[in-house]
Fold this protein.
Amino acid sequence: MLIRLACAIKETKIRTELENRLAQQDVQLQFFKPSRLSWQALARSCADVFIVSSPTIPKPVESSISLLNELPESPMTIVLHNRESSEEHANLLASGVDVVLYSGIPMDSLLEALETTLESRRQFYYAERFDRRGRFLPRLNDFTSNSRDMQVFLDETRQVVSSDATILLLGETGVGKEHLSKAIHADSHRSTGPFIAINMAAIPEQLMESELFGHEQGAFTGAVRSRRGAFELAHGGTIFLDEIGEMPLQMQTKLLRVLQELEFTPVGGEKSVWVDVRVIAATNKDLEEEVEKGTFRKDLYYRLGVISLTLPPLRKRKEDIPSLTNHFLTMNQQKFGRNLKRFSQPAMEALCNYHWPGNIRELMNVIERAVLLCKSDMITLEELPSVFHNTKPVRMDGSISALSMPQEWETMTLPQVRDAVYDQVEALYLAMVLKKTHGKIGETAKIAGIHPRGLYAKMKKLGIDKAEFKAKG
Ligand SMILES: Nc1ncnc2c1ncn2[C@@H]1O[C@H](COP(=O)(O)OP(=O)(O)OP(=O)(O)O)[C@@H](O)[C@H]1O
């Protein structure tokens, strides 16, 4: 992360020295004119460290300093004092200033003292990250798999961890793209830097530029304070751009430029900011198709996809379902203080036969629910949602099979049975039409009488992959 240093310094010599010495570091300097200083504007600069000459502080000093101390960044304040009076020095410290420096000391000593403050700020961020990293960030060694596809995938991933190249992670929703990108970050030489994730689908279009690149105060109505963007926050680490396929074309052009130069100008700003960031982008969209449709820039697609990795869906790595299930069982036992031994055999079989449209996220949720509902020390079929009660796998080859009437229906409610049957019928119908159209979405949607977007959503939910029908065509 870049450290923002806001200065309102009367001594020109100190200003010049600061500019010269800090220019090459991870420090972004902003100078305010001491003669026309607005304390409110200074406070809105979103700085990590303030350095001000004592005569610039409006009276009463205590309230001016407490205004800075209460800012969301919890900034540090350094006051340059032009007199060597220990009483005034003590008074400044008592009003909440972190460091008081006599401006008459040799320049080297002054800069050294300033450097110590900057270093403690770096440690502040490092400590924050270390905590989070220690508790949450997965490592690549945590990813073990019995599936051949997944093993190949993990070998490929290990080969690219140490490089700084941009990665494009592809795969259906919930397959673990963000989880994996955290592991790539934690195993890379950037692990002591921040990991910043930002989801393009979750940001309104008009705020996207500011979210990514920050803004200066007054840049637009409502921008009362300056704000850092995700790229600046990720300095020294990794930025994860989730749902990149949702990024509007205009922003794609800006992103492409930033990826090429690693330099950007915050909205409403004048100076460009340089950052050292590794970019990992992810999407569950077919970007090639988006390029063909003209909704995704071809040059950006190539730039992002220097290394392109596709995480297999859970239904294509069924060998891993038992170990993942047990992993989530242990996790939830700890979370809810339960002591459950295992899954019954029919329950585990049902989990393995299911087509998992929501992938690992769905599995995680199903296990959490089962742990909460379980009354004995073993999770049975009853504790799984109704769709698992018919363990017959849905056939995706387009052939129609008669609906089965499983024994479990005897104990299910009518709405539960209706849901289970409805999903099964929809899956069989769509598979039949996709087979006929050789996986063409537009044509299938037309026959089905629904919008292509609705068709995509249904296929995603039901775990239907159009590629399976293309191959057969
Ligand atoms: N290998 C794994 N081991 C344990 N938990 C995992 C694993 N992979 C994914 N998860 C968990 O599954 C959930 C979904 O994963 P994640 O958010 O990374 O998926 P995604 O592919 O990025 O989804 P989306 O495309 O919807 O953003 C997360 O809570 C994540 O922690």
Notes: Confidence is low (pLDDT under 50) at residues 398-402.
